[in-house]
Task: structure prediction
Amino acid sequence: MADKEKMCIALFSGELDKALAAFMLATAGASMGMEVKIFFTFWGLNVMKRNEGSIKSKGLMRKMLNIMNRGGSKRLKLSKFHMAGMGTWMIKRLMKEINMPSVEEFIVMAHEMGVKLIPCSTTCGLMGVEQEAFRPEAEPLAGAAYFLAESSKSKVTLFI
Amino acid sequence: MKADQTLDCMGFYCPMPIVKTAEKIKKLKTGEVLEVVADDKGIKLDMPAWAKATGHEFLGMEEKGGEIKVYVKKTHD
Result:
């Protein structure tokens, strides 16, 4: 086959349901032979933060932000009906019931399939997090120009 | 339809059947036929689309009860 088709996803949201949507499309695309990149920006960074340990950042405001906005694939909440955790717990249970991978499993699977998982450097700067805040599957940070350059070569670009 | 290998995707929803198919097809030889058994109705449109995108040949499907069997022939490495 000729050049691989490309797909770009900007994941702006840090919620469980929206992350799932992004990873379903990313893994489906990868299985169809597409070269897939997900850019994590703003609240989307939370999806790629590591689950363990604390996240270091400088300055009182950023420290506070990273405590309140800890992130990590296992801490994501539903965008609707979180209901103090009850709704999210129920959805996770239902997901298991139909053998749907968790966000955690999707990240590992996508990475193994060659999906590039790229945190956005500007929002990392804004929120005071660095590469060490992210799980090992994360690629080096990149900026908007890189996203746009990739997106302009992609047949599919999504903003979630 | 006769198949060389079977992939059980019963109980799995999109995108898992095509993700598993993409993985499994690597283990077949060119010219061999893969049978995928699934119960997610999405596969009826997903598998032809997957075959078209990857260049493998979609041979058809059989549906019995809630069980859908789709057949794909590996046409290249």
Observations:
- Helices of chain B lie at 16-25, 43-54.
- Chain B has a mean pLDDT of 96.
- The longest strand of chain B covers residues 57-64.
- Chain B has two helices and four strands.
